[in-house]
Amino acid sequence: MSKLSKRLAGASVDSLLLAFVKFFTLATGLLCTMILSHNLSLQTYGTYSQGNLVVTLCANATILGLADAANYFFNRSDGKRDLNAYANTVFTTQLIIGVATASVILICRNWIVGYFNNPLLEPVLLYVAFRPMLTNMTSILQVLIVSIGKAKLVAVRNAAFSALKLLAVFLTALATSDIVILFAILLALDMMTVAWFWLMFRKNRFSVRPVILDLTLVKEILSFSVPMALYVLTTSLTRQIGALIIGANESTDMYAIYANCATVLPFDVVSASFLTVMIPIVTRYIAHAEYDKARNLFKHYLAIGYLTTVTFSVACLVIAPEMVKILYGEKYLPGLTVFCLYLISGMAKFANLSLILSASGKTKMLMAVSSASVIVNAVTCVVGYQLIGLEGPALTTVGVYIVTMVVLLGLSLKELRGRWSDAFEAKALAYYIATLSAAAAVGMLIKHTLFTLGAPWLPSAIAVALFVTGVVLLTNRKSLAASLKAINSMK
């Protein structure tokens, strides 16, 4: 292999490619949100958000940890026969559950409409019903494709279909405000996505047959995946309880404001892309008790996470009012406090802290932590709404989420036979906090000065955000480069 080929290989390179494509994917997603928010009424956009909430909750409730199971068993199995059996059983199980879920949504659509007190939601549910199943099938197939070293195929697909979704949203906003048409197009794109991934996996490994269920493997798979499923569900509920409370008690207009402002912006794009490539690697390390390697990998993953995610979040926080206007429009400014609270929550999302416990098979531990968090959040969200109003559920959700992340980090380090000092490089972290604080303070001063002088708000806000981000990344470039190099050398 040539020197150039070697430099263009490795976990960091694959991850950065995925990060670039994921950034494009998320950018198109934000553009979709911006187009719809600026062009639809609050009621129409609220209906769109409620349809998406049904998809998200049902997908998370019915994935049953099967994507994690696909990774866990596929990377531990020996022989093509075992791989076929596990893949077929996982996919068939999801098909059965998905069809059942779609049936329940269709049967209960009047109850769902009544819960949100929004009759405009009923025709949307006809196209929403099968999207949870298709979303989960896509997740499972992506895991399988990444596991055979074809992460670039995932990147290509994500970029292409994101562009198609953006086109669909643009045409819908331009030609009509009928979101039923938009949901019909999104359903068709989901079907195309599953078909494409299935064909790619068949071409590169073997054909997954979604009608073959090996009953002898079901118990083994579900014993691993169900606790993981409860973790995913309770984590989703922790994030969505606020939206459910607002949806039941406020108007569709207010729900639209809360739904947008409570969205955690995808500033974890870099760390999330590293996670995609790292999952098989860390699973193998733990399976072979190579804890030193696993700890080192985890430490550099955390470093990349906070150096990017927290930096982007703080830069956005400095220009928060302007960011709301850019993303959603002035009519969403009543949700500014909610927006700021979820930016803080996004900082805690700098890393996926279920990675180690999931790779270790400790899904019951994940289930216990997440179950406790969702119970606490359910109670505090109701109390917060009664005491504060719209901001109450956001405030309590952020607090519970941060505490949960700290607990998961501690448990992950224990599983890796490590200590808190193994998670972070103390000097590098302290230097980062100092430079971040200084850049944010100077950025706020620059913004205030520019606005006082009457400078246009949009270019001024963008310039300030770029200044904060650039200063922090530039002053911490050595730490970032070291972590990228370390991860790239791991296999």
Structure description:
- The structure is a single chain.
- With 491 residues, the chain is an all-alpha fold.
- The protein has one domain (3-488).
- Helices cover 82% and strands 0% of the residues.
- It contains 22 helices and no strands.
- Helix 2 crosses helix 13 (269-287), helix 4 (66-74) runs antiparallel to helix 5 (80-107) and helix 8 runs parallel beside helix 10 (179-204).
Count, helices: 22
Number of domains: 1
The low-pLDDT segments are: 1-9
Q: What is the helix/strand order?
A: HHHHHHHHHHHHHHHHHHHHHH
- Intertermini distance: 17 Å
Helix proportion: over 70%
- Major sheet description: none
- Beta-strand portion reads under 5%
Average of the residue pLDDT scores: 84
Structure, briefly:
The protein is mainly α and 491 residues long.
Describe how the helices and strands are arranged.
Elements (H helix, E strand, L loop, with lengths): L2 H5 L3 H29 L2 H21 L3 H9 L5 H28 L1 H8 L5 H7 L2 H17 L3 H25 L3 H26 L10 H35 L2 H10 L7 H19 L3 H28 L1 H8 L8 H13 L6 H5 L3 H26 L2 H25 L10 H27 L4 H19 L1 H12 L3
Helix pairs in contact: 2-9, 2-13, 3-8, 3-11, 3-12, 4-5, 4-8, 4-11, 5-8, 5-11, 7-10, 8-9, 8-10, 9-10, 11-18, 11-19, 13-14, 14-16, 14-20, 14-21, 14-22, 16-19, 18-19, 20-21
